[in-house]
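Aim 2, interim progress: modelling of the magnesium ion-bound target.
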Amino acid sequence: MVKVVKFGGSSLASAEQFKKVGDIIRSEADRKYVVPSAPGKRNGADTKVTDMLYGCYALAEEGKDFTAALDKIRERYDEIITGLGLKTDLSGEFKTITENFKKKAGVQYAASRGEYLNGIIMADYLGFTFLDAAEVIIFDEDGNFLAEDTNVVLSKKLKELDNVVLPGFYGATRDGVVKTFSRGGSDITGSILARAAGADIYENWTDVSGFLVADPRIVKNPEVITTITYKELRELSYMGATVLHEDAIFPVRKSGIPINIRNTNRPEDPGTMIVENTCKQSDFTITGVAGKKGFVSINIEKDQMNSETGFGRRALEAFELSGISFEHMPSGIDTLSVFVHKPEFEGKEQQVLAAIHRLTAPDSVDIDSDVALIAVVGRSMKSNHGVAARIFAALAHNNINIKMIDQGSSELNIIIGVSNNDFDNAIKAIYDIFVTAKL
Ligand code: ADP
Ligand code: ASP
Ligand code: MG
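Predicted structure of the complex, ligand included:
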């Protein structure tokens, strides 16, 4: 049995947390491959080391003195080293980082140092081999991750090593230019390592006891999802359930390796299993609910648009011309709405509207800039009647106006648009009807 274990930032935020992690790893000899994140928040008011690095590098880039900011980062690591009773010496590393910051080595290089340094400490603490991700996680010059090249190089390298610490979040081009994944990307590194190692399981250790039916910051003590499929998880994580990076399933999906989300602070909890497929029904009608604020809907009206060939294509072209991707596009007989991210749309608004007029000659176009989208996801929904009706009833009962409802053709999800102000209450209402009331 081979296990890959990834620990998130809060699991490695202090020496105390590191000790819990050490106990977890040492309790099973199968836990041979470890991916650490950078130290995260020790409490609500704290700052993640990754964010400190972004801030510090911004100073360097402006040519300002960044010494104090870098010293603060160093203190975070020194506290861990001392707390663990280690003798790890990071002086040389910090000297190199200072030089590279002065040379303006790039913001991705800067951000990656959080994981890099934590990896060095972790390897020292466990007595495992430190493997720099810059040697084995390969990106192209444009920052695209090269999955197959990486798999060849990494699996070959692993054959030479027994126990490995591979820092998360970054890699490098063949010329050694450091590149990072998007935020939360250490989850992806864990998955890449699991594939290359041919692992039996990828354990992703965090600060909650699994993937929860709803965001714990909105719903108090939500139920844990026992088993979730890759597809369901992707829908939920894309829509804001950030517990696992939405791209983290791709590498393991290819080889069918399950992911187990676990809680570093409660290692006895079984957590959530994320699997390719399962014959198990979900515990409730829905598997989970998640959402995001900050969308805009552009509603296009034109009499008999449904009989006009190519109308939808032309409408979307208006967005494409400004490089804006769309999120959803529900349509009626004479109406079509396009949902986009507000920050992406705002600056290009007039350009897009002009293009819509030019390309589709609509009767009217109106904009609603106050939309939050909520995804209700579940593999068991298609065998349950009236799911949408129950959502309607729950929201109506809580005086929440539904701006849009759209069911994916896979019947795996229902997307609902509400006002940003209604967002939290809508999530609570949906949770209550399906989970608390078990309807
Ligand atoms: P890590 O640092 O371990 O990678 P993250 O902060 O990336 O951890 O993810 C864990 C956090 O995700 C939780 O603390 C929780 O606040 C948040 N979260 C949002 N939605 C969910 C959900 N549906 N289930 C579990 N956690 C969620
Ligand atoms: N440290 C990085 C971040 O904060 C990557 C990660 O934690 O997965 O985004
Ligand atoms: Mg994370």
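The chain has two domains: 3-207, 288-438. The domain at 3-207 is CATH 3.40.1160.10 (Carbamate kinase).
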